[in-house]
Amino acid sequence: MAVLTGQVVAAFSRRFIVATAAGELPCQVRGRHLRAVCGDRVEVRRDGDAGVIEAVLPRASLLYRSDAFKSKAIAANVTQLAVVVAARPSFSMELVQRCILAAEDQGIASLLVLNKADLPETPVARARLDLLTRIGYPLVTLSALSDVTPLQSALRGHTTLLIGQSGMGKSTLINALFPGADAVTAEYSEALDSGRHTTTHTRLHRLDASSTVIDSPGLQEFALQHLDAGALAHAFVEFRPYLGQCRFRDCKHEVEPGCRLQEAAAAGAIDPARLQLFRSLRRLQQNAAQRL
Ligand SMILES: Nc1nc2c(ncn2[C@@H]2O[C@H](COP(=O)(O)OP(=O)(O)OP(=O)(O)O)[C@@H](O)[C@H]2O)c(=O)[nH]1
Ligand SMILES: [Mg+2]
Ligand SMILES: [Zn+2]
Q1: Is the CB of residue 203 below 6 angstroms from any atom belonging to ligand 1?
Q2: What is the pLDDT of residue 182?
Q3: DSSP for residue 13
Q4: What is the CATH number of domain 3-56?
Q5: What is the pTM of this model?
Q6: Which is nearest to 202 in space by CA: 59, 21, 62, 51?
Q7: Where do the domains of the chain lie?
Q8: Which residue's CA is minimally distant from atom 3 of ligand 1?
Q9: Which of 188, 214, 219 to mutate to test the pocket of ligand 1 (most atoms within 8 A of CB)?
Q10: CB under 8 Å to 237, separation ≥6 — which residues?
Q11: Which of 17, 20, 91, 270 suits a disulfide with 85, CB 3.0-4.6 Å?
Q12: Amino acid 196: pLDDT
């Protein structure tokens, strides 16, 4: 029985597809404690047409989201997050920012993708993203139904995770980038069921030897309970120059005198909306900590 190395390209709850030099193998994991996620590099013991994941190799990054009760790994070894939004259905700027904060915590760069540029409401959606483009997050505007070349160069050399709410067009982008991927897409109906998403599992696609793209199920929420207050502040990239500079070492950046973040917000160096978001997320964390 040969031992192969490979990469997890699809993760269902306890079943996986691993791409190896010998092709794609359906796999299970050995034992109860080993956890594998999409993007993981693994050692597989091959047994005929299937395999068993024996070991997960060290991860460069592990992106996860949480709620008050549990954390859930989304993908491993991601080097770039592409948050996909569109003018329709409407998107939540807070959700977009939460995704980016989780990525920053793992040292993962983020890119904004404004899809469905053919929709007439696109300039309004574009204006909402200013909050993030001003900080320096790059934005690619395109229409997955007509031309994805604006996105292609941004994907080179990266393992990119496409993330976002249902109906933004992540799987449509995948189909345009990978003719043959045959990812299921569907019109999103807010009226039908707010918990519905079309894509139900993560799937990794290889663009070239050094570039891969991962499709993921639509998000309804993205909690950050796994970040403590310090990590949360650090995840706001534009706060970093001010951290550790407040008069009080345990400054909560609320109403304390000598708070460098409040000063920076008053001076227009950071956006007050971002400081507000930091405060509300921090309060959420505290409430969760009290419940436990
Ligand atoms: N007008 C327009 N519609 C688009 C575009 N891209 C995708 N759509 C449509 O948007 C709908 C949702 O697309 P999907 O690709 O299924 O969305 P998704 O983000 O993968 O959704 P989940 O898998 O639920 O997370 C489909 O009806 C697509 O045809 C675009 O560029 N322009
Ligand atoms: Mg999808
Ligand atoms: Zn402060």
Answers
A1: no
A2: 79
A3: S
A4: 2.40.50.140
A5: 0.93
A6: 62
A7: 3-56, 62-215, 229-291
A8: 116
A9: 188
A10: 104, 135, 136
A11: 91
A12: 66
94, 127, 270 from 265: Cα distances, Å? 19, 20, 5
* pLDDT per 10-residue tile (average), the chain, 292 residues: 91 91 93 91 94 96 78 92 97 96 95 98 98 98 96 97 95 94 77 66 92 92 86 97 96 96 97 97 81 54
Question: Which-ligand-closest: CA of 282?
Answer: 3
CATH of domain 229-291: 1.10.40.50
Q: Is the CB of 170 under 6 A from ligand 1?
A: yes
pLDDT at 212: 97
- Atom from ligand 1 closest to the CA of residue 219: 25
What is the predicted pLDDT for the residue at 65? 77
Q: Does domain 62-215 have CATH number 3.40.50.300?
A: yes
pLDDT of res. 291: 58
> Which amino acid, residue 235?
A
Hey, what amino acid is at 189?
S
Residue 51's pLDDT is 95
202 lines ligand 1 (CB under 6 A): no
**Residue 183 CB less than 6 A away from ligand 1:** no
Q: Which ligand 1 atom sits closest to the C-alpha of 196?
A: 24
Contact 56, 49 (CB under 8 A): no
